[in-house]
Amino acid sequence: ASVPLSGPLSAHAIIPDEDLVRQSDNKIQHSDKSNQIACIAFDPIVSEGIVRFEGEFEKHWKYDNTFGIADASAVFAPDKWPGGSGNKKKTVRYECDGRLQQLGEKIRGNSKFLDPLAMEVNMSATPRTLRFFMDNEEQPISVINIPSSIRFYIFFREEGSSFTVTKFEYLQSPTAKGEIEEARVLEWGKNWKQNEDEEDEAEDESKDEIPSQVQIHYTPKLPNPDCVKVKGHRFTAIEENASTILFDPVIKKGITRFEVLNVSYLLSAGIADESLSFVGDVYPSKLDVSKIVDYSYYEGNLQHIGDWIKGNEGLEEGDRIAMELNMESSPRTLTFFVNDKEQPNYVSNVPDAVRFFAYIAVEDSLFKILKFEEIPEPTAKHESESRSLEYGTEWKNEQKEDCTIQ
């Protein structure tokens, strides 16, 4: 019988852009000058034995991070998402909210990120397996039939954030037991689907009709028409590219409601001053953050000048986000709703002429416009727990110390 492999491995980061990311011992450090995305794979390639890869992200809160495994043939290019550059079929991606993605739908059921984060591959098992651990607890959803040769990888983009590899080692026997109630096994390379009940629920939400008011006929301003497919009111990213889509007409008067269904990976939505125009591979804040208000799907953070403001709800697949723009009130206001629930943070003193926008960047991400209409009366209440954020001023979180993960 062969002797099991054992002992530590030396993690060598494959860095696509060395001006953006550097390695110091087991710490992978992102530049504090940029929020450009970075996908970092690690040598050595794993093709035999049982291997555990473990670590922690530090100093991040604006953006989501992921980690996972990639077929050894995958090459990560600079400023590309893990599934980009032809790597969608070659990667399994564990997102910070616990969802798993490869082909098809994102699968819910695992925990959100809890340090330490760990993956364990068993290349000696039949079939080969990938299991996940959060805070040393085995997660219920695993992957089988992984490729015969893989690398572990991480993905991050926050200025000044980092990832430290705390373990990279061969194990003589698996720590994963696979004895979890309600466990689910996903197969590499197959089209993944969430269970039918949840799929139906999301579908029902998309058909939830609210009596229409005066419909506004809109025209999308596509920054790169070759990257987004438009079919009716549905917008799909057909390749990986940052697409900030503005919608005409410019809103100058009345009370307007703009509602969008997050079918898959809508990254953000918001308003932009009428003077802004997005062309090419551009995310919302790239040109002039002082002329936008951006509602991020990740934890509902709001971006303008200064801090990203926490307190609103994040967006899951199947959620609806609505923006109510009141150009008749004094001051003019922008209020957000998630699944018809008014959010506590709203914006006052918005410019006198703005456009709505939606932002997608990941291949196959999709959103649908449900409403673009004038309404006779505002539905926003702005009750006592609400917070008004003034457009054009520097925003500060009320509890800044809670915004970073140590």
Might you state the CATH topology name of the largest domain?
Answer: Jelly Rolls
Summarize the main sheet: 10 strands, mixed
What is the overall pLDDT average?
89
Please identify the structural class as seen in this structure.
Answer: mainly beta
CATH superfamily of the largest domain: SPRY domain
> What radius of gyration results from the CA coordinates?
22 Å
Q: Which blocks of ≥5 consecutive residues have pLDDT under 50? A: 196-212, 400-406
State which percent range the strand residues make up: 35-45%
Number of structurally distinct domains: 2
| CATH structural class of the largest domain | Mainly Beta
Query: For the terminal residues, how far apart are their CA atoms?
Result: 45 Å
Number of strands: 36
How does CATH name the architecture of the largest domain? Sandwich
Share of helix, binned: under 10%
Keywords:
single chain, 406 residues, mainly beta, Jelly Rolls, ten-stranded mixed beta sheet, 1 helix, elongated, disordered C terminus, SPRY domain-containing protein
Can you offer a commentary on this structure?
Helix content is 3%, strand content 43%. By secondary structure, it is mostly beta strands. The protein has two domains: 7-194, Jelly Rolls (Sandwich), CATH 2.60.120.920; 201-403, Sandwich (Jelly Rolls). Strands 1, 3, 4, 6, 11, 12, 13, 14, 16 and 17 form a ten-stranded mixed sheet that branches. Strands 19, 21, 22, 24, 29, 30, 31, 32, 34 and 35 form a ten-stranded mixed sheet that branches. The longest helix is centred in the middle third of the chain and has 11 residues, at 196-206. The chain is elongated and about 70 Å long. It starts with 6 loop residues before the first strand and ends in an 11-residue tail after the last strand.
